Structure formats: structure tokens, C-alpha cells
Amino acid sequence: MTTFECGPTTIAIRARYDEVVSDRWPVFVRPQPGELLSSWAHRLAFANGIAPRSFGRVLGFSGGMWSPSLDMNFQTDAVNILSARTGVSLPQLFTMSLKGSPLKRLLLPLRDDGRRRGSAWLQFCPQCLAEDAQPHFRRQWRLSTRISCAHHRCGLRDRCPSCRSRIAAFNQVELVPQHFCVTCGFDLRQAPKVSVSPSVRSLDQCIHDICTLEAITDAMLSNSLIRRLLAIPDICRQYPAASLVGLSTSARIRCFVRLAMRPNDWLIEDDDAVVALWRRSILSAGGHASLIGLLADTLERKRLRFRPEKRRQPMTELSTLLTAYLRMMENPRRRSV
Length: 337
Fold this sequence. Notes:
Elements: E1 2-6, E2 9-13, H1 37-47, H2 52-58, H3 66-73, H4 76-86, H5 90-96, H6 126-131, E3 148-149, E4 154-155, H7 198-215, H8 223-230, H9 232-235, H10 249-259, H11 265-268, H12 273-285, H13 288-305, H14 318-330, H15 332-335
Antiparallel strand pairs: 1-2, 3-4
Helix pairs in contact: 1-3, 7-10, 7-12, 12-13, 13-14
């Protein structure tokens, strides 16, 4: 039990929270677009006055990496409690998890082998956390293929810059927001910016777009593409025989630096000529968003060229329609509205 002194009054936060409140929990925390389920669970715990480690016991976990495990396995008892006590539907909670993700083999593993070059389970962009009204961790930060933030044009981090510890909000025993290091208390929002060149950021975004688009098709991701992505450290001859998911973010950035200096044939090759052409188009355009923009501009010019001079009909611009489509694909919650 954690206690706080407030003048003559002592406030006690009880670990056995499920015996203190019933029905809906006092404070509701709204999930953010693209937020990871574990991140929301940590924020929910903090808002209701209970440390994450104790909150895990409320959901039926005995300890360890309980919230990352919730992301991957979507345990029935735990999510039923979360849904019943917050009013957030099970389908919405499922979309925040990583259960059944076609990108599962590309996710960073839940382990800590202590190696300096070894992977950590979660990455973050300090500037994203600093700009968030409610600092939260994104689902895409769990992917080994993501090494940069397109919005802030910087590299991601997977360790506290002060003590080099991995993100471990699930193990927090004090009432502290999840963006503070559990080991040393450093505010992760203050971490220095990691410089990444435009060519490396472009390659990162193109790979992410290729994976995202192929994951939502009937064919899903081909095994050959996944194998090639996992073999990036060997392909670029940076860390021979190593798997991409086994490396730290800084090590993977070094791999992408080397990849950006060579042709992209290793990524384009595919038995399906249509898939190969689509990947080549994304790489040439610098990403899916750029490709959609080029397509919209081309079709708009063609429409204007053959537009009749008389009886002009009001209509939505194609570029606006395609932009709305892209935003809808980036935010799955909007599709259910």
C-alpha cells in the first residue's frame, strides 16, 4: 500500500483495488488513436490511483510482464474486467491489442537478455510523448521494422538514456506516469533526439507501408517477405546471422543506414509480378501516402482535361476523397463509426 501525506490527511492507495470499488471504476481514460492496450492499461491504473504492478493483480496476473502479455494474448478474464469496469467494448480493446496480428513475426520479443545490442520489447519517440496531452505508447512502436518517427523526423529509442534500462511500466510500484523510467525516474519525454537521415526514414516508411498494405489483403504477408525482413541484419552485412527482432533499436538503425545505400532489389523481388510492381511503386514514390497523392494528382489532371465546359456539376475532389480514405485506413476505429 502506498501512502501520501497531504497536510493533516494521509491518503492511502490500496493494492487490493478490486475489493474497494465495484461496478465502473471512478475515472475513465479514453483510449488514444493507435494506442497499445498495455499503454492504456497503465494510464487507467494511474488515473484511478493504483500502481501498475498492483493493477496487474486486479486483472488476475501474478506478476512479470503482465501488460505486454495482455497485448499479445488478450486474456479473456482480464479484458472482460477491463470492459465491464470501463465501458470500453471488447472489439475496441481487441483492436488495441496485438492478438492475431499478421505482423506477429515482426514484433519485438518480450524478453530482456541483458545484452547491450539485444532487443527491448517496446520503443518510443520522446517528442511524441512530449506533445501528447496524455502521453501514450503506440502499437507500431512494437514492430522491429520501425526505427524512426515520420512526424518528428527522428529515430526511435528503446532504452532510458539515463540508466539504459528498458521500458518497464508494468513493474512500477509507485504512482508515477508510465513515461518515467521505473529504474531511475528519468522523464522519457526529455530524451535527446536521435538523428536519422531522410533516406533512412524513407526506407523505414516504405517498408512499413508495404507491410501494412499487404497485411490487409487476402494474401496477407508472404512468408518470403517476412523472411527477408527478419534477415535484414544479414542482407546488409551488419550483423551476419542475426535476426532483426533480436537487435536493439540503435543496432537496427545501423542496419537501415546500410540498406539505404544499396538497391532495393532484395525487397522488390516476388513470385507475384503485381505485388513486385506495387512494392516498386511505393519505393519510387517514397511511401504509400506519396503514392496516393501522385495518383490523385494524375487522375485530377485527367478529369480536368476532359471536363465538359457546360453544366458543371458540384462534386468532391478526388484528392480529398483519397486523403479521407488514407486517414480511415490509418485509424481503424473510424471505420466502425
